[in-house]
User: Fold this.
Amino acid sequence: MHLVYPAVLAALLFSVGVYGVLARRNVVLVLMSVELMLNAVNLNLVAFDAWLRDSLHAGQALTLFTITVAAAEIGLGLAIVLLVFRTRGTADIDRLTALGDPNEDAPESAPEAAVQNDRAVA
Assistant:
């Protein structure tokens, strides 16, 4: 098997993924681009494993590990995106600069906030 074909395909996939991460504004599309880059890495791992004829198949084992990490990343990433979309009403990366609640007023001083919290509980 020639190593050039999968390596060129992986380089193209990785390049498209990098373009997607840098050019897109939607968080879901950025996550899809990251997955595309991880798939390019998986393709390289399997291609080099087959080319080197490794008896332990370390490239395939690393590919399974990468797939597991990618599944966890997508699960957590989509959960965070859905939570942000529910609270903010947008999934635009440029509008997600602050981690605080956009509807919250200016932060109060700590002692006054503690007194108000104690009054609310009582």
